[in-house]
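ARCHIVE CARD
Drawer: 12
Card no.: 0347
Subject: one protein chain, sequence and derived structure
Cross-reference: see card 0346
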Amino acid sequence: MKFKSLLVANRGEIALRVMRTARRMGLRTIAVYSDADRDAPHVRFADAAFHIGGSAPKDSYLNIKAILEAEGDAVHPGYGFLSENAAFAEQVLKAGRAWIGPPPSAMQSMGDKANAKAVAAKAGVPVLPAYDKNPEFPLMIKALAGGGGRGMRLVRSKEGLAAAMKSAQSEAEHSFGDSRVLLEKALLHPRHVEMQVFADSQGNCIHLGERDCSVQRRHQKLIEESPSPAVNAKLRAEMGAAAIAAARAVGYVGAGTVEFLLEDGRFWFMEMNTRLQVEHPVTEALTGFDLVEWQLRVAAGEPLPAKQEDVRFAGHAIEVRLCAEDPERDFLP
C-alpha cells in the first residue's frame, strides 16, 4: 500500500470504525479531537491524536486548516462534517496526501441536486419531472445544496406553495448557507431504496445491492433493511445498472450510494451520496465485504477486490437508529 498512515478527520463511532480496519491493515492511525473530545474513545484508540480546536464543530471538525496540520499520509473523512466537501478533498490532494473518497469533480457534480438529476438523466437513468414554472401538485421542495431532510417540504396544492417555499428556503439557508431549492413531482406512497456502488481507478464499477430506508421520521432514516422486501432479483439488477450508470457518468471512484424512489415497480433517481454511509454495515453483513478496506485499497490504486459476478447476498440485516427528541423544547431528531 502506497501510504503508511491514516488521518481520520472525524470523531466518534465512524472514526473508530475506520481505525479498526486501518489498524488491521497495518496502517498507523491518527485521530483529531476538539476540546469536548479530549478523552473520547477514538482519541484513546488511535496511535496519535491532534487537538484541532474548540468544542463547536466550526472550530474543530469543520476547520480544514487545523485538520490538515495533523500528520497522516492519507485522509479519511468518515461521514458528516467534511465528507462531501469537494474543497477539502482538493486541499488534501494538493498537499500530496491520498484522499479516501471520490474525485472532487465527482463530488461537485453530485453535490448539487439539480445538476445530479441532469447528469443522471443524460446517462439514461429515470428521473422525476422538475418544474421551473407552472408546477403540478403534489410536489416536493428540496434544498439543492444539502440533504438529511432539511429544506424539504411536501406541497399538496397551490395554496400552500408560497409558505412552504419560504420555510424551505429559510431552513436551507440556515443549514447549508444556500437557499436555492428544487421543485419536483412528488410521489405520495414511494419506498426509499438506495444502492451501494463501488468503483476503482481502473474503470471497474459494481453494485453491492440495496438498502431499504423507507421508515423515516421528519425525512430522517430510522430503519435500514437489506434486502428490501419490495425488490426482487430482476429489479435489483435494473436499479444496480442504473446506479452504476450514474456513477460512471461522473468518473466516480470509491464508495458511493445512489438513492432512488420506488413505487409500483418503477424507480427514479433522487440523489447520490459521495461518501461512505452510516448504514454501510447492513451491506457488509450481507456480502461479507469490509467496505472501509475496499475504500483504502481503491485509494491506494488497487483494483476492486471483487467483480459483479462475485457478489453474493446471504441472510437479512436491519440497522436501527435511535433518536432523541423533546417536542416541548423543539428538540428535533
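Annotation on reverse: The two ends are 40 Å apart (CA to CA). The first strand starts at residue 5 and ends at 8.
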